[in-house]
Amino acid sequence: MSSLELKETALDGALAGALPVVIVLASGRGERFLASGGSTHKLYALLGDKTVLQHTLDAVRASGLPWHLEDAGHPGMGDSIAAAVQATADASGWLILPADLPLIRPETLRQVALADPAHAVVVPVYEGQGQRLRGHPVRFMKTCGPQLMQLQGPKGAALVMQAHAVVEITVTDIGCVTDIDTLADLQRAQALLSQWHQPPTQ
Q1: Where are the beta strands (DSSP E) in the chain?
Q2: d(CA 32, CA 116)
Q3: Is CATH 3.30.70.1450 the classification given to domain 13-196?
Q4: Rounded to two decimals, what is the model's pTM?
Q5: How many C-beta neighbours within 10 Å does residue 63 have?
Q6: Is 144 within 8 Å of 164 (Cβ atoms)?
Q7: Alpha-carbon span 173 to 137, nearest angstrom
Q8: Could you tell me the residue ranges of all domains in the chain?
Q9: Are the C-beta atoms of residues 121 and 166 closer than 8 Å to each other?
Q10: Phi/psi at 83 (nearest 5 deg)?
Q11: What are the tens digits of pLDDT across the range 122-169?
């Protein structure tokens, strides 16, 4: 069954064709999570009342951007990206988003998507709590398409990023760097989620 699911943007119907597609990468085997004590694939582990994958997809839907879920089995992240870009070849660009980022905010996705299109590669940088970390999604414009379609292996799009001037945009969204690789990562994400949902003190 095809995992392709593109949706017209709610941001502005006239811009739908000009907006990049969010590629949600969900093909990994999640072996580190299982090795850390997880009892299921990390994307289907519960975080609050929803799975990790459902949190990520809900944020993508709420962003109003068109999107594509790549969940077929692939040997590596590079192969997954290549397959997804080939499946959405008409897009103006792509936001590469690993599916194990359940706390990503819709506004972060929009901020990266709407960054200056003159920049071939844009990456969000989380700045907060004394940290400055590169996160996801990474946006690639149309000019990067041929290179993305040739990717193979486990290294993702690192080689494509090295071939272009990467522009960083600062965000305050810790969700862009909160990926779930181990059971401890899931517990940290749960603590953040619980903190955000606490009622305000009187």
Answers
A1: 21-25, 46-47, 50-51, 67-70, 93-98, 121-128, 131-134, 138-141, 166-171
A2: 36
A3: no
A4: 0.88
A5: 26
A6: yes
A7: 12
A8: 13-196
A9: yes
A10: -65, -40
A11: 999 998 777 899 999 999 999 999 999 999 998 889 999 999 999 999
